[in-house]
Design brief:
Order of helices and strands: EEHEEHHEHEHHEEHEEHEHHHEEHHH
CATH topology of the largest domain: Hypothetical 12.0 Kda Protein In Nam8-gar1 Intergenic Region, Chain: A
Number of strands: 13
Number of domains: 4
Radius of gyration: 34 Å
Helix content: 40-55%
Largest sheet: 4 strands, antiparallel
CATH architecture of the largest domain: 2-Layer Sandwich
Number of helices: 14
Shape: flat
Distance between the termini: 103 Å
Strand order of the largest sheet: 9-10-8-11
């Protein structure tokens, strides 16, 4: 029975490496790097080139171990210095990643974009932000695809513009403090009315007038330029204001209402999703919800000790420790007052014993 003859391979095969590839003058040049070191080098964290490159060698194919020809290097780079060429490829080349790593990066960036969209938008009806899961579902509905070479914030702004075409969503207003001379206020007030900016409060201090207002973020640059021309200054108090948290937004008269004709343009699944979103949005807080705090009960002390924080602190108290000792002796628990009296009696007995000796 014939067997195939196995010849030795005269190539140095590199595996489990990070490959940086650069195409120049019709040729492909690659370098072999250590994983997770390329980004550190580009961000300036890693300074030692030997910690980044596995070898100061330029390849035409790292996986197969094929070295780049000296003639091609001189044609593309004008030199054959391997180290300098490696530096240029490291700076300008494209990092090649495996399929699973690429999926993980895209998934993380998709999540980052959804988070930015959530932070910058609100529901115009409730003045509250949507949840992160809702934003991700809407992004899937509009078939959004992540661009790994583009900034996450820029993509988030594009997503917001696309979502506004189909769903009840708007940019959350930003809160500013505008300070300018009082005699210049009339010129500013006309523009604020034209831009439909909400004035929250006014404060006069000598010849200066301070205004706290809320506006669409897209108007910030124009407003800041106008205030500077009026010899004033602007200060950002909050980038995103909504009806949740410490800063409460008022009802806005100038927000863009969603026309009744738009839902007719949506397909049935999208319209149903929008209806589900409205059901899942957070309802405004009432006075009763704040007072209704979940109470916790300690079985050892047989008493209600308050909310979760007070419940944890209760376990460190002398009252709980004293009842725990009584429980091991199969004695009934004592109240807080009875526990204090029992401890005082025990201390008094201890003092008398010490005095008798």
């Amino acid at each position: 029975m014939s067997r195939s003859l196995v010849q030795p391979v005269g190539q140095k095969r590199l595996t489990n490496v990070a490959v940086v590839r650069l195409k120049k003058h019709g040729n492909r040049f690659e370098i072999a790097c250590y994983k997770n070191k390329v980004l550190s080098w580009r961000s300036g964290v890693e300074k030692d080139l030997d910690e980044v490159l596995q070898s100061h060698t330029v390849y035409s194919n790292v996986v197969k171990g094929v070295l780049a020809k000296s003639k091609d290097l001189k044609t593309a780079f004008g030199m054959d210095d391997q180290t300098k060429i490696c530096l240029e490829i490291l700076e300008k080349g494209e990092l090649q990643v495996a399929g699973k790593e690429r999926e993980s990066q895209l998934s993380n960036q998709f999540r980052d974009i959804a988070t930015i969209v959530m932070q910058k938008t609100i529901n115009p009806e409730t003045q509250r932000p949507y949840t992160i899961s809702m934003i991700e579902r809407l992004m899937h509905e509009i078939h959004f695809a992540v661009d790994p070479h583009s900034n996450s914030k820029k993509q988030a702004l594009d997503v917001i513009k696309e979502l506004q075409k189909h769903f009840p969503i708007k940019r959350s207003p930003m809160r500013l403090r505008l300070t300018l001379p009082q005699e210049k206020f009339n010129s500013l007030e006309e523009k604020l009315t034209e831009w439909k900016i909400i004035i929250v409060s006014k404060d006069e201090s000598g010849s200066q007038l301070s205004i706290v207002c809320e506006m669409d973020p897209g108007l910030f640059r124009d407003c800041d330029t106008l205030v500077r021309n009026l010899q004033g200054r602007s200060e950002i108090l909050a980038i995103s204001v909504h009806g949740e948290g410490d800063i409460h937004a008022d009802h806005y008269d100038g927000h863009d209402d969603v026309s009744s004709s738009e839902p007719k343009k949506l397909t049935e699944p999208v319209a149903q999703l929008t209806e589900n979103m409205q059901k899942q949005t957070l309802a405004p807080k009432t006075e009763n919800t704040e007072s209704q705090v979940k109470q916790s009960k300690c079985s050892t002390c047989d008493a209600v000790v308050g909310d979760a924080k007070q419940y944890r602190e209760h376990f460190k108290s002398d009252w709980h420790k004293h009842n725990l000792k009584r429980k091991t002796r199969q004695l009934p628990p004592l109240s807080a007052e009875e526990c204090s009296a029992d401890v005082e009696i025990s201390d008094s007995k201890g003092d008398l014993n010490e005095y008798s000796f």
